[in-house]
Amino acid sequence: MNDTPLLRVEQLTKHFPIRGGLFLRTVGHVHAVDDVSFEVRRGETLGLVGESGCGKSTVGKALLRLHEPTAGSVFFEGEDITQMDRKRLRSLRRDIQIIFQDPFESLNARHTVGKILAEPFVIHKVGTPEERQQRVAHLLERVGLDPSAANRFPHEFSGGQRQRIGIARAIALEPKLIVCDEAVSALDVSVQSQVINLLLDLQREMNLALIFIAHDLAVVKHISDRVAVMYLGEIVETEDAQQIYDAPKHPYTQALLSAIPIPDPTASRDRVILSGDVPSPITPPTGCRFHTRCAYATSVCINQKPARERIEVGASIACHHWEQISTDKSALPENVA
Amino acid sequence: MPLLSIEDLAISFETDEGVVDVIDEVNIDLEEGETLGVVGESGCGKSVTALAVMGLLPKPAGRITGGAIRFQGHDLTQLTSEELSRVRGDQIAMIFQEPMTALNPVHRVGKQLGESYRLHHPEASQAEIRQESLRLMDHVGIPAAERRLDEYPHQLSGGMRQRVMIAMALSSTPRILIADEPTTALDVTIQAQILELLRDLQAEHGMSIIFITHDLGVIAELASRVVVMYAGRVAEEASVETLFGSPLHPYTKGLLSSIPRLESESKSVLPTIPGVVPSISELPVGCRFSNRCEFAQDQCSISKPTLEQVSEGRNVSCLRWRELDQNVAVSA
After folding, report:
1. Nearest-CA residue of chain A relative to B224?
2. At what angle are helices B158-170 and B109-120 packed, to 10 degrees?
3. Which of A190, A246, A273, A293 to mutate to test the interface with B (most CBs of B within 10 A)?
4. Residue A241 and residue B266 in contact, taking contact as beta carbons nearer than 8 Å
5. pLDDT tens digit sequence for A203-226
6. Are A18 and A28 in contact (CB under 8 A)?
7. Is CB count within 10 Å lower at the N or C end of chain B?
């Protein structure tokens, strides 16, 4: 087993121009993703969490160049995706796939499920028509659907079943990495657990790496090996999944975790309630972007962007005061926020 | 006597596939000053029940075909729409998941809030309305209320819009607030703010809240009593501690064990409920959960269970709850 990560993202940045005025000139930028770096190893799940507008979905799409990155590099097995030409990019789709929240929107309503699932084989010229049919039947079985589903249309299936079809299509070419963008968020609780189990099964069988983007922190915790927390376009903390829930270091991670409603009425709660809303990504705050809502913010937080400190392998944090916050809060200077 | 009492409610909808019984024999009591959580998955009928209380069933497709909704000596299902709108406006208010669809996008926030206040206080002067609006905005924790009153709904964040809706609902000082997934579209940190606000408001005004959600975490946080619905029927009803501590209905048990929890082991296999929620046009005969229930026997797909009282304030609708409860007790 080699130690080089399957995916290495370096200083990925995506700004969307805002156009306005008579000639639709660029009048500003949405800083959707800024200077994001992380790694994903083979067979590993990296959870990407954060609130709406934090840029987690943009990261997922920029990896596959569904959004063209503004800056930064994405190395997949050592090769920079951002520098690939169209042809190379298309063949890369065999290795990296993406699944979205609503599979219905990404499944062609006028094609049978069989045709939808055979498409990847046709595009990548895999097998004869007969072989493709066999593969489709096998795929359906693998995701827990009856092979007869091949003759039906997407609208005949429930949301959970459609997500299974979406997953079947994503694994058709045996990819090495699947980006799951809110893949289970729209499902009912009783169906969601089935799909989570399916993803975990497939991951074990195929040594799949997953980037699991979601706003539901309990789901992310369940499925991930490591978790990266995003706030306003930046990663504030990356940590082992168990560790980050047991002992979150970044004040934002702490607040985010403490806000999760616990399905146990007897649980005691030590809640940090953040005041205010997430600031606009068009004019993000100076220094540490979280300083406007942080209980520990000091003048350095307003003026200086915190560097990303590597704590150990696969774990990093971007906060000026994380050490004092996790050890001795009294050593902190006066809060200025 | 309960403040609000839903008795044997039945609602049917006309669909392309014929008339379907969306709600069947639903019984729910709401006590003075309590927060009642109504939980269930999509299509379980939790929102339709709330709409029926408000007299807001989509017409002519939806129709109350049986039962009663009693509130202060009236059966709301028998009132004329004029009488109902008086009760609804003054005594029962409702907030929804997406406030943007409930707010008018072309009117300023202040105008809409002022209008709902004037509706309940027709004699109020302009100055009074403005002052009251400011007070309400302030009351629900909207900063810079003066400026916000002159803004349009799209200029507010989702959390702020929901606060405006709550302010509008409070303008009549209602006895009952029905909240239908009010935090589902919000981020978790904003959700925590809104839940905190609802708790504070209830402590202050003593109103009763019916909180409808699919999120068991939110139920555990906020509700004192819980009704679990499945496919248009009540599966189980209990105090929040009892329901989470010792659920009786196989559906409640399945639901509680299939949610991923922060304290559960990462990447472990989650217990699941097999199958999918049946569509309302294809409901199983007998117990509506029978086709997904691991304890179902022949009788379950033949005879319909009724809501039985287990103890005071605790009801369950399952033919086998007694033996299943005993089995659990023996094996434990």
Report:
1. A265
2. 20
3. A190
4. yes
5. 999 999 999 999 888 999 999 999
6. yes
7. C
* ipTM of model: 0.86
Q: In DSSP terms, which residues pair with A124 in a beta bridge?
A: none
- Tell how far CA A127 is from the center of its chain: 32
Quick: pLDDT tens for A71-130: 999 999 999 999 999 999 999 999 999 998 877 677 888 999 999 999 999 999 999 999
Report the predicted TM-score, pTM, of the whole model to 2 decimal places.
Answer: 0.90
Which of these, B116, B113, B105, lies nearest to B153 by C-alpha position? Answer: B105
Average pLDDT over residues A47-63: 93
Please tell me whether the peptide bond between B278 and the residue prior to it is cis, using omega within 30 degrees of 0: no
Residue closest to A74 by CA, chosen among A5, A2, A16:
A5
Residues in chain B, overall count: 332
| CB-CB contact of A273 with B193 (8 Å) | yes
Q: Which residues in chain A have their CB less than 8 angstroms from residue B260's CB?
A: 193, 196, 218-219, 221-223
Q: By percentage, how much of chain A surpasses pLDDT 90? A: 76
**pLDDT bucket at A333, cuts 50 / 70 / 90:** low
R_g over Cα of chain A? 21
Q: Tell me: the pLDDT tens digits for B257-314?
A: 999 988 888 889 999 999 888 887 888 999 999 999 999 999 999 999 999 999 999 9
DSSP per-residue codes, A33-100: EEEEEEEE-TT-EEEEE--TTSSHHHHHHHHTTSS--SEEEEEETTEEGGG--HHHHHHHTTTEEEE-
Which residues touch B70 (CB under 8 Å, ≥6 apart)?
B4, B5, B6, B7, B76
